[in-house]
Task: structure prediction
Amino acid sequence: MVNTGVQLNPVILACLLASSFFAPRNGFAQAPSAASTASSTRIVTAAEAFLATLSEAERAKAVFAFDDDKQRTRWSNLPTGIYHREGARMGDLTKPQREAAMSLLAAVLSPRGYQKVVEIIAAEETLSKDNRPGGRLVFGRDEFYIAFLGKPSAAKPWRLQFGGHHLALNLTFVGEDTALTPSHTAAQPARFTLEGKTVRPLGQENDKAFMLIHALTEAQQKQAILGYQMRDLALPPGQDGKMIEPEGIKGSALTSPQQAMLLDLASEWTGIVHEAAATAKLAEIKKRVADTWFAWSGPTENGSAAYFRIQGPTVFIEYAPQKMGGDATQHIHTMYRDPSNEYGKKWLK
Result:
């Protein structure tokens, strides 16, 4: 939403490193080890530990009925001031409460998924310098919300929401199964400097996509590249239950190495969630990789603003640079959907 340079303001940097949201590790939170595969019991324990830190009034704000469809669909890419969220606001919580919230995220996400979330929040914090007293728009790490639909349980379904500007994680838990769809990840700036190091919250998504388009033959590229310009997400937040016709090159027209690259690209979204769920989801997509399409719109030189899409029976992923704010490569929106299992619907029948 806001034009920003790549260099993090020293004052903001100091605030970020001192933030009680994160335990510092090179300026970011320490992600859980890869060996810490999440289980429903561990996730429920972390959820209950966070809820135990809340007062009765705070809990009333954070917990909704499982069948509250209004809250289930109350998420957006937009910032505070344009979009109203419900739940426990991170900026209103105490340090122990925020630490418990981040511990819960560490339990439900993979190490790289957790790190991605932390980096998206760090990018968001760079925009907080544009906050004005009484201003309409409010940015920063305080403007993220956590909410529960239903009671955390290993036996009964429940949901966890965490999000704010440029982030919306919707997790549905049904026994040992976890769905992360629909979810939105984005970044502005998409590239910035922290402690002398370049940070790119969605860098792997970008780089793997350009590697794949370059791995296609000229004939394959002609199939993959759309004959028109995509300027935004086809199915952004607010478009639940909708789908478009597949376009581009079909997975059956790719070689085995190219299919592997397509799956590796998809894993940047499927792999946000904890290891057990991520492994199961990618295996599901792999079974139907021949029926999974890859579409491209825009230049094919890495570093340029290009849109791409992965679409199959159980996956719908979009990556769309945004013109708003100047350099489109510095403002990225992505969506991750599953037309067969949005909000875990196939497990709830």
In short: Residues 202-347 form one domain. The longest strand covers residues 167-174.
